[in-house]
Give the backbone structure.
Amino acid sequence: MNEGKVVEREKQSRLMLWLPVIVWLSLIFIASSIHTPFRVLRVFRYQDKLIHLVEFGILGALLARAVYRKGLESRWRYWACIGAASLYGALDEFHQAFVPGRSVDWSDFAADSFGAFIFVWVWLSLKGQGLLRLRERVRKTAE
């Protein structure tokens, strides 16, 4: 009976880690499906790139939160989070090719990937697992 409660808690814990990722992915998809994107007051030249950077940076941070909280041991977790967010950015741009009024802009993809890189690094740094500590852990794991 006690083992059943542990399994149930584990399922709930997993859901709480991955639900924000799923919700954010859905919001990105919905936003990129709108045939005429919201007209935002343009304050500076590369404002749209900053929006992409933050949008996919949040995705990267949510992925890192889910992956690192579960204690999955792999020296590739950092790059997997960035890669997954970047892949979704590429798929998002591909998807926009089929949405009337939208177009593919590979500089948006670059902003998506850079945002994921920065936000994952910041998230890990705030958690005490910055790139330097990550590199040390990778070296120890490889030995």
